[in-house]
Structure formats: C-alpha cells, structure tokens
Amino acid sequence: MSFKYPALAALLLAGTSAPAFAQAGGSTEPSQTPQTSAQDDAQQAATDPTLEPTDGNAIVVTAQRREQTLQDVSASVIAVGADRLATSQVNNLQDLQTIVPSVNFGNDFNQAKIFIRGVGANTSTTGNATGVALHVDGAVVARAEAQLTSLFDLERVEVLRGPQGTLYGRNATGGSINLITAKPTSDFSGYGRLTYGNYNAIIAETAISGPITENVLFRVAGKIEDRDGYGENPITGSEVDDLKRRMVRAMLQFNMSDTTDLLLSGEYFRQDDHSGAIHYLRASFPGVPRLAPLGVGGYATDPRDLASEVDVGTITDSYSFTGTFRTELSDALTLTNIANYRDFESSLFQDLDLSAVVNSLQTNGQSTTVQERRIDSVQYSNELQFNYSIDNFDLVVGGFYFHERQRPIDNVGLSRRNGMASNIPLLQAAGVDLDEAYALCGYSPDSVTGGSTIIAPKRVCTRSNLGTEAWAIFGQANIGLGMLTPALDQFTLKLGGRYSQEKVDSRNPSIIIAAGGRGPVIRFTEAGTFVERSFKDFTPEVGLQWEPNPDLMLYYTYAEGFKAGSGENAAGSRTIVDPEKLQNHEAGIKATVANGVSVNLAAYTYDLQGAQLNKTIAGGPTGYTTIFENAAGTKAKGIELDIFGRITPDFRMSGSLSYTDAEYVDFVTLDPLDPRNVATPGRPAYDPVTNPGPTEFGAPCAGDLDPATRTCEIQLAGNAVRNTPEWAWNVHAEYDIPFVNSGELTLQGDVTYRSRVYFTEYQREIESSKAYTMVDIGAIYRTADDRLSFQVFAKNLFDVDRKSSTFALATGRLIGATYLPPRTYGATIGYNF
Prior knowledge:
By secondary structure, the chain is mainly beta. The protein contains nine helices and 50 strands. The strands form ten sheets. It has a 22-stranded antiparallel β-barrel. A five-stranded mixed sheet has the order 3-9-10-7-8.
C-alpha cells in the first residue's frame, strides 16, 4: 500500500531521538551482563520462570535509560517478563493490575484511568493529560484512550513507581509503565498461540522473526481478540462489553556496523465492538422529584446488561511509526535517537440515560440523551540522548520534543430512531448557518437520515481544537564516590534535573439548543473560545545509594514531578487548569537473602499541589455543566514490598504488597450529587434556600452557600484520593512436576487482594468498590524441547463481582458504573520454533 505520511518517512529516516531504553531492552537474546551475585538468579527466576537461574543471565531493565540489573536500580521498579504475561493471560493494562498491585486501573468513557501511589488520570473529558506515563519502546502514548490498546509480543513490562520527572518528564508524576516489545532476531524463530475460553473467547497471537540478509533483520507479530459480551442490550439483542480487536506490528532492523543500527517499527490497532459504555447503577438524587432520572422505567435488571434504544460501541483505528537510531561514538559514549508518530482515531456511542426510554421533546418532553464522542489525535515526539559510562561514572543527557493536535467532537442529541428536523427552524431563527452547525456536529445533512427525514444538527455539538507543544532538556549522573576516596567506594551519588517548557492552546466552538432542545440557541465561536497558556518548570532529583556488599543496597531519593496544565473539550470552555507539582521522598532497601530470594522494600511520602480534577453537574443550558479544576493540596505516604525468588529447584514464588495513605489536605469544591447545586432545567431557576428539597447531605448546607451562584461548597480535607486502595497485595506461586516424555507440568496460582477503592473524592460507598480477593489458577505442560505447550486456566475463579469505576452522569441524573471481568476460563495451545 502507499505510504500515507511522506513527511513522516523523512522524519523516521533522517531523525534520531528518544529514550535509549528501547534499544537497551530490545534484544530477545540473553543479556551478556555478567552475573555478580545471587540476586541475579532470584530476579531471573521470578521475572521469567522458564529460565533456570544457573544459566548466568541477569534480568536487565532500562528504567533509568541505561542497562542495569533489576536489583541495581535505586528506585521502586517491577519487571514482568514475557512468559509471566502469557501464562497469566495478561492482554491489556487492566489485566496487569492483577499481578502488579501498586497499579490501579479504571475505565469510563473509553479512557484508561491508570493510578500509581494515588496519582493518575482524574478526568473524563478528552484533551486532559494522564498522571502515569505509558511508553512503548521509549515513545510516549499521550492519549488516555490510546492506552486501552492490547498488549502483544512483549519482551517485558517495566512499572516505575513514583515521580519520573527527570528521565520521563511530562505527565509522569505517578510513575511510568514501559512496554518493551520483542525485537528482530539473528536466527529464524517465532511462535504461535491459540486460546479458546468461555464467552466464546478466541485469542490468537503469532510472531515470526529472522534475517533478510546478514545485516537486515525483521520481525512481524499480530494478535486477534474476539469474545462475546459479558452482558447484552435487551432492547436490540446486541452484545454489551464484547471484544473485537485486531493488531499487527512489523519491524526492520538495519545493522549498519558493529556499533550502529537503525530499527524501524510500524504498528496498527483496530477495535470495533460494543464496549466502553457505562452501566446503570443508581439515581443520583433519590427522593428529589424535580431531579428524577431521565430513563426511569427502562433500565436493565442485570448490572452487566445495558438497555438502550441505540447500540453502544467503540470504534478505534490507531497507527504508530517509530524509528530508533543507535550508535556507539566511542567505548564510553552512545547516541540514541527515537522518533515517533502516532495517529489515533476513536468513536464512542452511548445513551447517557442508560435506559431504553427514548427521550425527545416529541415523545416525552425530555431532553435527548444519545452521546457521540469522536477523537482525532495526531502526535509526534523526538528524543535525542547521549549515554556516557566509565568506571564510577554514568551520565545520561538529552533533549525531548513533543507535539500533539487533537480535534475531538462531542455531541448529545437526536438518535437515528427518533430523527427529526424540528430544531432546524430554531437554528435558522437564531441566524445560525446550518453548514456551520453540521460541521460542528461532524457530519453533513446528506450523510445521515432517519427514515425519510434528514437528521438535524444535534442539540449540543462541540468540535474542539486542542494543541500541545512541549520541549525539555534533561540529565542524570550517577557518580561513584569512590573516585574521591576509597573510603566512599560503596556510595553512589545520583544528581539529575529536567527543564520543561510547554505551550497549550484550546478552542471549543459549539452550538447549544438550550432547555433540552426548546431554545434559545447559544453559539460559541472558535475565536471566542480561544485560550493559550505556557508553562515551564525545573524538576530536580537527588539521591544517594550505599552498597555494603553485592547483595544489599540502601538508597534515598528526592524527586519532583510536573504535569502541565491542559484544556478540555467542553462546550464553550475557555479553561486551562494550572499544573500539578509533586515533591517525593523515597527510601528503599534491595536485598538478596538466603537461597537467592530477593526482598525489596520502598517507603515514600509526597506532597502534591494542584491535582487536576474533572466532574459534571446536572443543569445548565446543555443539561450538564463540566467543571475542570485544581485541588489545593494532597499528601500521601506508603510502602511497597516485593519478594521474589526460587525457593527450591522446582518451586518459584513472588509477592508484592502496597500500602497507600493518600488524602486531600485542602480541597473546597461543589458536590455533583448534592441537589442544592443543581438548577432545575428551564425556568425559574432552583433556589436552594427557599426550596432545598430532600437531600442526603444535610441542611441547609453542608458547607458555605455561595451568595452569587446559590451553590453549596464543601471542604474535602481528609478524604481519600480517587482510584487508590489503602492495601493491595498479590502472591504468585509456580511448581514444576516432571511429566511424561521428559516434559514438564507447571502448576501456578495467584491470589490478589484490594481494599475498598473510592472512585471520587467524596468518599461515598455507592461510588466505590468494596474490598475483594480474587484467585487465578492454571496448569501448563511443556515438552522437553520447549516447543509445544498446553495450558488450562481460570481467572477470577470464584466470580467476584466488583466495579472498576463509577461516574455521575449529569445528563441522565444517575450514577453509572463499569465492572471488572467476571470468571473466565479456557485453554491455550502454543508452539515455538
């Protein structure tokens, strides 16, 4: 096929920039790092249990942008190898939280909500930045929606906990998740795996790799995921929360010399299914007749079902191209450059009343509630990095550039079932050009029809234009103090810093037909909503590590994180919030004890200023009002304990425990579930003083009544932060049993616990998931030559039913929820060659 982006081709071939860790972690061949202590055996066995600890290989990670064994990294890091990912049936980031308890994952409005240590993505409108960075081979994936793609053909996953402001920069205040893909090999090899499970799940994954010529290598990998829904739409009979995904990745590696190579990678992802929607949970304002939900009488009775007159669904197309150039300028100096381009398009369709009731002025006098959200994002980044390493001194310095342009469309209005042109006269009477209205809605009058009537522009149409341009320079030095005096030979000083500058712009032109479609018409122009802000920051890092012997390291690190302000796609919005800034203290111990078992312990405390939070409140011209704001202050303390190793030649185990105490220090805000904050749609406006109505929040006001807006603000100091359990742990065990024909049977199991998780800052039980324990089990048979394998598995063995997120839907005046997967089981057959 023809290349769609000629400018990108030139960029990938001529440009050279981004993290060296993509190259450092790239090879699927054994690392040549010499084994220095028993700790290497333990991390090898725990991270990739198919490798014996006697083969001399150490697990090499590139969390600090240079090759180090896991136990030599003075930071809280977990590495999960390819074998563990495959046998634990980890297919996406939500699956990852089962085996990495410090990672917490939610999902609403088709956006990934990744949290580490109480820091993550707190918003549900596109355009906002994440708080945990995701990188694929060194290239950042900026959109929260784009982080929902599947995991396949990976060498390992590295989870860095805590702020990574120096080396990973923007939007890594909570940490970073690094996906390191499998790379081309010099020998012809590959694998195939086929899984079949309940819900008619079919997962097929394959990869083939080898040489084209002596100096040109290739790798091609692909994956297919199909599954029936966990629920259904009782109105249309369609699946709900089913899965249909296709993905492929192709690589070419050019070994120009023994010291220079270029890796070109292209990836495509496609999703078209009925997932991503929110399910009905409860009315937002029980006992308040004026704020009754808009879908009463049409809700599904099973929580996993979703009744709707339209089929919910998600359609996604994503392309990514990466060029990684690496050359050794000398024995001590290496240059690495990674250039990346990503084109992401996605559409989400759902009915915001979560009900089969067809709302329209013509049928029941209520506002139409069918939502369509389309995202069109183009990003490119480039990072140039120099690594200098001699005895007692390692230095990483570099520069980074990032650009993204988003053009999301957010519509609420007429569905295809009740399409009418009744709002066209309102628009014409208001002097609105219909071509402009259709353009804001993202379609033309001839492209969509409802029966014999052309569907008019919807009652709320917002076509945003959001831009980000960022650059940074950074450096980190690890200085062995033994160069000063032999008495300090066991100490290493870490000094780093990053200077970042970012410019953000936002435009939100919109057409609104107020009062649920009755009028008047409100129009926001692109020029009238344009706003631009610039941010700059310096994030330092200072650390000291002490290694009294090869099997013990103690360290302390002070680090800062920075997340620039961002805009939102909301009708008429001119909001760009202030940045988030985090100061973190961390102390840790990494030890290898008896029998090669590694024990890693990290303790931390941080202060976060300006956490960016999003909510919607019912009422206003559109029926909902978006609030995007900064919380004044947040603080946290916690511990993370990781234990892993080979207990006996046949028995391996690993365990992780995370304790997080994160709360708001000062946050005065409105509560979207307090009816005193909601004006009755239409006229006259609701007065909370003269007519407060029934409420769960006390009277006359739980906080201070604002005399101008007549709303009630509350202080949330002491409340827990979102998406963060206080306690979380996982225990994993594997036991090998010799089997027929010299093969081997491995029994494995996981037990995972999470305490209660609150999905909003209001610390309400209805908007939370109570504590749970989940059990996964499996058995894998491998032939003696390790070519053929057969696995049976069960995940969430006891069918624990828990929410993964909640969201107060202001339009429908109800609370919606998404859910963790139910019990799944199946079998996998694999073949390696």
